[in-house]
Amino acid sequence: MLKTIASLNMAASMIPKLAEVDSLTIQAIINDEIDQISPSPHPAVKHPQSFMGAPLRPLPTDVQRGGAKLQMRMDTLCCGAHGLSLLITVTKDGKSHSLLFDTGPEEAVWESNVTRLGLDPSTIERIVLSHWHRDHSGGMLSAIRMIEESKKTSVHAQKEVVVDVHPDRPEFRGIMAHEPISLEPDPSFAEIEEAGATIFKSDEVHTALDDTFLISGSIPRLTPYEGGIPNGIRYNSEGQWEKDELIMDERLVMCNLKGKGLVVFTGCSHAGVVNVSRHAIELGGGVPLYTVVGGYHLADGSPEKLQKSLEDLKALEPTVLMPGHCTGWRFKVAIEKEMPGCMAPIFGGTKYELV
Ligand SMILES: [Zn+2]
Ligand SMILES: [Zn+2]
Which ligand is closest in space to the CA of residue 84? Predict the structure, then answer.
C-alpha cells in the first residue's frame, strides 16, 4: 500500500483523514434509467419497490373515492435523462451532512425531478462536480438557485452553498468526428457565483463537511486498457480544438461507512472504473472497498475492455456494485453473470440506504 502511494508522489501522511460515518443514503435525482418496480437485488442495499417510493399526494377533501385519501400521480415520478445527480446524506454522531454529487444535464430536469420528489434542497451544503462535462454540470445553476431559494423558508439556516470544482474548466469540450462537434459549455465560474454559490476550486485531495466526505485530486491512469474518450477534444484559449481524451479534471468522492468500508462515487469514470476504485483504496489507507456508485462508462467499451474491467474490479472484492448512468446494459449483464448477486444498479428517483 505504501509503495503504491509513493508511486503517486503522495506521502500517506499528506492524505487527509476521512472520518467514519454512521449511516449513508443516496437519493438518485437524475440517472439515465428509471425503475420504480424492481426489488433490491442485494441485502446490503435497501430501497422501495413496486412504486412504494413514489411521493403520494392528497386527494381533494370533496372527492369521494371509496375512502381513498391519497393518490399516486404519474407526474410525481422522476424522468430519466442522460447524466447523473446524486444527493448523498451521511450522519455522524447524530449530525447529518448532505452533498450533491453532480447535477445532471439540464436545469429543467434537475428542477423538475427535485420538485416531483418533494425534496428540500436547503439541506445541501456542498455541490461537487465530478468533471467538466455538460451531462454532469448542466443542472448546476438551477440547483444553486433552488438551494438558495429554499433556505429562505427553511429552518436549516446555512451559509451559501459551496460548489467544489476542478480549476481546469475548458471553454468547451467536444468530439472530433469528421469535423469537431462541440458540447454546450459548462456553467462558468462567474455564472456559478451569480447564481449564489461560493466556489471552491481544487485539484488536490481534500475532505469536506466535518471530514465525512473525501474529494480526490486527479485520478492516476495506470491500467493499459482505460484510455478515456477516444477522439475527445477541448477548445483552448487560443481558439483551437486540441486533443483531450483523458479528462484529467475528473475526481471521485468517497465516504467511509462504519463497519462496511469505502463508498466510492464516480461520475463518468473517464479515468476507468478500475483506476477510480484502486485510487479510492489507496486514498482510504487500508479501509476495504465496499461499493462503487455511479457511471462506469463502459456502454461503448470493447468486449476486451469490459472483460478486463470486470476481472480487475472483481479482484478488489467490493461487497456490492451500484452502476448507473453510462455503465451500459452489457456491463451490468456481465457483472450479474460473473459476480452473481453482487450488483444493485441505481435508478433515477430512487433512494438507497446502505444497511
Ligand atoms: Zn463525462
Ligand atoms: Zn457522464
Answer: 2
